[in-house]
Amino acid sequence: MARYVIGRVLQFVLTAALASVVVFVLMQVLPGNAAQVALGTSATPEAVAALEAEYGLDRPRIVQYLSWIGGVLTGDFGTSYVTKAPISPVIFNSIQVTLIVVLASMALALAVAVPLGTAAAVLHNRPTGVIISGASQIGIAIPNFLAAIILVMVFSLGLGWFPSSGWQAPIEGFGGFLERLVLPVTALALVQAAILTRYVRSAVLEVMREDFLRTARAKGLPAGRALVRHGLRNAAIPVVTVAGVQLATLLIGAVVIEQVFVLPGMGTELVRAVSNRDLVTVQGIVMVLVVLVLLLNLIVDLLYSVLDPRVRRAA
Question: Which UniProt keywords apply (predicted)?
């Protein structure tokens, strides 16, 4: 088991190191000069060269990479060429907003999808199961941004129950924080819940046809208890895989939701940095997003060993 965990952690570290090289190279090959962008088109070549020397842009690429990745490992993402402000506070503040919204959305989606998907599987040949399956298909077809707009029109502009935009940190007032969290979390969770409901339904249906479940029922266990005790854990393995993928998708898809609800998250900062051609900020944000996605994959791999004894035995 320890060997399995160490192997997955080493794979995470090596993949993150390779990803950092790819991110750095991609930022370097983009057209344009960071010093020129910072000074404007009217800057003289002497001024551009002086700023390049100040920022260290005249150093060899390998030296620039080692300097950047060394700072990243210590939590220092450098200084913006455009705003002249440190990038680390921007990233650390925005990532908190994004993670709160994304994790709350996934928790809500799972809370809805697991019981609904299980009910759709158990009642698959009854009207209730058909209705749940049809509703999940409709939910999959609705984009996140459209769900967000509909929620704003109904619950903010129409009923006036929740604010339509803005953010309030929990330390500034937990009630206001929750009010501003409800709509973006619901907008993200609706589509994810529909997707996960379909996967839960398929996984539970497959488990219900397995021999071990029929054996449990033949020994006298009621169908519901047999499913809970022996079936759901086996059905959770493919669902965990899909949930990990969907959580990574939420991190990227939150960009649109943050724009709709004017949330100061990673997506908003990324869009702002791209529009200002602040490439060093873009580089830092993209690297953080990549590491988060890789970390999610690591967590999913480790959960396999918890849910599936065969993985532990193989390790």
Answer: Cell membrane, Membrane, Transmembrane, Transmembrane helix, Transport
The model's pTM = 0.76
Domain total in the chain: 2
Within this chain, do residues 117 and 192 fall inside the same structural domain, yes or no?
Answer: yes
pLDDT in tens, 40-50: 666 666 666 76
Enumerate the H helices of the chain as residue ranges: 2-29, 34-39, 45-55, 61-73, 88-122, 127-141, 144-151, 174-208, 211-218, 223-226, 232-261, 266-275, 279-307, 309-314
Residue 17 sits in the same domain as residue 138:
no
Domain match, 111 and 7 both: no
Q: Say yes or no: 127 and 224 in one domain.
A: yes
Q: Cα–Cα–Cα angle for 281, 289, 11, nearest 5°?
A: 125
Residue 125, both tokens: 């040949």
| pLDDT one-digit tens code per residue, 116-131 | 887 777 777 777 777 8
Crossing angle of helices 232-261 and 144-151, in 10° steps, is 60
314/304 Cα distance (integer angstroms): 12
Cβ proximity of 278 and 82 under 8 Å: yes
DSSP character at residue 79: B
Q: Which token pair is 93? A: 């503040």
Classify the phi-psi angles of 32: left when phi > 0, otherwise alpha if psi is within -120 to 50, otherwise beta: left
